[in-house]
Automatic annotation (TrEMBL), chain A:
The gene is MRS6. GO terms for molecular function: GDP-dissociation inhibitor activity. Residues 508-530 are annotated as: Disordered. This is Rab proteins geranylgeranyltransferase component A. GO terms for biological process: small GTPase-mediated signal transduction; vesicle-mediated transport. GO terms for cellular component: cytosol; nucleus; Rab-protein geranylgeranyltransferase complex. InterPro entries: FAD/NAD-bd_sf, GDP_dissociation_inhibitor, Mrs6. Belongs to the Rab GDI family. It comes from Orbilia brochopaga. Residues 508-521 have a biased composition (Basic and acidic residues). PANTHER family: CHM, RAB ESCORT PROTEIN 1, RAB GDP-DISSOCIATION INHIBITOR.
From TrEMBL, chain B:
SUPFAM superfamilies: P-loop containing nucleoside triphosphate hydrolases. Keywords: GTP-binding, Lipoprotein, Nucleotide-binding. The keyword NAD does not apply. SMART domains: RAB, RAN, RAS, RHO. This is Ras-domain-containing protein.
Length: 530, 209
């Protein structure tokens, strides 16, 4: 495919990487009337939120050279039942499963700017805790969503029911703390729930922990942190319908969101999109070349130096601002090198399994519509392989074929856990097969793993924000969206927007566009006479 | 007051190389205007809408333009979602634009729903002196790549300019399954995310306890 040359050589902002934050920023800047060049080194949109077909994912696993991702492995599994993968294109496989709470400020923003109509949101229904050795033959305990759920739970005794409801009320702020003294900053979620005043059983601790979507052990999650996550969950319940707190967008959630945002940026006429093209060199404090075409220099900005960037395609361009995560900056940039080192901040195992079962029970809900997503929390110690047990908690975020991401009769399992240096991925497979074996189909058949990909992703240590912006370069921290699309995404974009525009006012409204020359649509033109 | 009839939505896309006149064709059809100096893409508008009444039934035709994302071949796969019809537009005075059409058909094949109705359009017949593609070539390509119709147009002179849109709607309405009843069923699983006027402004969330 011929790539024509960019006919503008000066930009207000060049953004490298089409992740969620970058795409949100591109749309906001373009709507504010800024000229934006948005590039991605990959031939596809999305970066850490990208979605690939089966064949593309396999090629990615073979070719990826990212310093951040380790132990990348793609496998097609032998099956006993003859269950088969469908054609490559019938899969939309995501790097991030993209859970959005219904109270997410990002979702409110999408509604405000009317982009939610370009997306189809589906319910994340079931929320389960896995209990392998429960006396109850059922290994899947539904996490109570309401007081009624708690009282109807046959596995709890009356005292526990009362305490659970009181603990919940206290966490949600409906009732004064049931503790004599409020929990101190060091109190963990486990200490709070198991302590003398509540002494709740392990399955209740697990249920509360599952609502945090945190991979740490309940003894390592601060009560304060857990409290805000649990409030978020319950505050989101019922907002768009009974019995669910979160949604995913059909066809890949985050990846679909990114594409809708990039189109919204392009639609303004101010943002140009180029894929498969990276920024390969940065020169700092360069005066705007007098011959440069592009956005007119305003009086206040005209004398300020900017950045000169070289693209992989050979184009050399000038920009006032350059925004990218460090993995999307030129590798010569010294700050990006430490990413290749083993991350001191730890890492996550992320994986995706294509399985030959619709897992109907997982997506069943009391109220219609049927859920397309479900969360299953597997506490530490619940899975067994030989004589070993899983040291860390594991989350399975399942997507049904309703998402349009896999064919009928199959499901996708996004399985994640923390890696504390053991580099052991044994329990990812065990988690998938345990779910499949203990949740047979109505006809008794058991699903199998058809294909899987897994990798470790290093977390970046915290860097003070002020060190990240200099001379028009805005470095974004690497973003690891393990299960949910975090609310912090929007805060980060607002900060960047303010750094570039000078104010948060008018974020995402079309004021900047209306200030520009009137768009042709606004001009009343008499139809020519025949 | 009885609820008004809900119009059936028909989603139509325009695709094809830059400067083939997609936006001009769209404006000629929707507004019956032609702006010779306006070479930019549709600014600030995600799609144009045209209401049609056919056999006493109301339709909302949603016409999506490429927003410039065709220039570097970076249309998103989400652009193609739920499309019922596609107009593939090239410029008859630009041979390269015609030669790029198989790649555009390929992209439509890859991302659009199966069974989407395609029409091939050779635009800019007003530039007959610079013609670089014969009408018969367009016709043959349309047949080869499975377009249901081929037409040469000029958004400038109005020559057949409305035909591709009208023909596309005709074929969509007369082809069993082209409006895909399954899509309506799928929609039933979609969560209604209320807009600003809706439940969003309701007070505090429900009490969970």
């Amino acid at each position: 495919m011929n790539i024509e040359s960019l006919n503008e050589s000066a930009w207000d902002a060049v953004i490298s990487g089409t992740g969620l934050r970058e795409s949100l920023l591109a749309a906001a800047l373009a709507r504010a009337g800024k000229k934006v060049l948005h590039v991605d080194k990959n031939p596809y949109y999305g970066d850490e939120y990208a979605a690939l077909s089966l064949a593309e994912l396999e090629a990615w696993a073979t070719n990826t050279r990212s310093g951040r991702l380790k132990s990348v492995e793609f496998r097609k599994h032998e099956t006993k039942t003859g269950a088969k993968l469908a054609e490559s294109r019938s899969y939309t496989l995501n790097f991030a499963p993209g859970l959005l709470y219904t109270t997410s400020p990002l979702l409110s923003l999408l509604v405000d700017i009317n982009l939610h109509e370009s997306l189809e949101f589906l319910k994340v229904g079931g929320w389960f805790v896995y209990r392998a050795e429960d006396n109850n033959p059922d290994s899947f305990m539904a996490v109570p969503n309401s007081r009624e759920d708690v009282f109807n739970d046959p596995t709890l005794d009356p005292r526990t029911k009362r305490i659970v409801v009181r603990a919940l009320k206290s966490i949600l702020g409906f009732e004064n703390s049931i503790m004599k003294a409020p929990p101190s900053a060091e109190t963990s979620l486990q200490e709070y729930l198991e302590g003398p005043s509540l002494s709740l059983p392990p399955q209740i601790v697990a249920a509360f922990t599952s609502l945090t979507l945190l991979h740490d052990l309940p003894s390592a999650i601060s009560f304060e942190r857990a409290e805000s996550d649990i409030r978020k969950h319950f505050g989101s319940l019922g907002r768009f319908g009974p019995g669910f707190a979160a949604v995913i967008a059909r066809y890949g959630s985050g990846s679909e969101l990114v594409q809708v945002l990039c189109r919204a940026a392009a639609v303004t006429g101010n943002a140009i999109y180029v894929l498969d093209n990276a920024v390969t060199d940065i020169q700092y404090r360069i005066a705007r070349p007098p011959e440069a075409t592009g956005p007119a220099a305003t009086t206040t900005e005209s004398d300020e130096p900017g950045l000169q960037l070289r693209l992989q395609s050979g184009d050399v361009i000038w920009t006032r601002h350059f925004i990218a995560t460090r993995s999307n900056q030129p590798s010569e940039n010294p700050s990006s090198q430490d990413l290749t080192a083993e991350s001191a901040a730890g890492s996550y195992w992320m994986s995706l399994y294509v399985v030959s079962s619709p897992l109907k029970r997982l997506f069943r809900t009391t109220d219609p519509p049927t859920a397309a997503g479900a969360v299953l929390y597997m506490p530490a110690g619940e899975l067994v392989k030989d004589d070993n047990r899983n040291d860390n908690s594991i989350y399975i975020f399942a997507h049904s074929n309703e998402t349009g991401e896999c064919p009928n009769g199959q499901s996708l399992l996004y399985i994640s856990t923390k890696d504390n240096g053991s580099k052991d991925d044994t329990f990812l497979d065990i988690a998938a097969t345990s779910l499949l074996e203990r949740m047979p189909n109505e006809d008794g058949s058991v699903g199998e793993i058809l294909a899987s990909v897994r990798y470790r992703v290093g977390l970046e240590p915290d860097i003070p924000a002020r060190d990240q912006t200099s001379d028009g370069l805005h470095s974004l921290r690497e973003h690891v969206p393990v299960i949910k699309i975090p609310d912090e995404v929007l805060d980060e974009v607002l900060d960047l927007y303010e750094a570039i525009i000078g104010s948060r006012d008018g974020f995402m409204d079309k004021q900047g566009l209306e200030d520009q020359a009137k768009s042709p649509e606004d001009i009343e033109t008499q139809p020519e006479s025949e | 007051m009885s609820a008004p009839e809900r119009p059936t939505v028909i989603k139509v896309l325009l695709i094809g190389p830059s400067s083939s006149g997609k936006t001009s064709l769209l404006k000629r059809y929707v507004d019956d205007v032609f702006e010779p100096d306006d070479t930019t893409t549709t600014i600030g508008v995600d799609f144009r809408e045209k209401k049609l009444t056919i056999n006493k039934k109301l339709y909302r035709l949603l016409l999506h333009d490429t927003a410039g994302q065709e220039r570097f071949r970076t249309l998103t796969s989400s652009y193609y979602r739920n499309a019922h019809g596609i107009l593939l537009v090239y410029d008859i005075s630009n041979r390269d634009s015609f030669l790029s059409m198989p790649a555009w058909f390929g992209e439509a094949e890859k991302f659009a729903p199966p069974g989407v109705i395609k029409i091939l359009v050779g635009n800019k017949t007003d530039r007959s002196a610079q013609r670089a593609v014969k009408a018969t070539e367009g016709e043959e390509l349309a047949k080869k790549l499975g377009a249901v119709h081929f037409v040469e147009t000029s958004a400038k002179t109005r020559d057949h300019a409305k035909e591709p849109f009208q023909k596309l709607v005709d074929v969509i309405l007369s082809t069993p399954g082209a409006l895909d009843p399954n899509r309506a069923a799928e929609r039933s699983n979609v969560v209604d995310v209320p807009g600003q006027a809706g439940a969003q402004k309701q007070g505090a969330g429900p009490c969970a306890c």
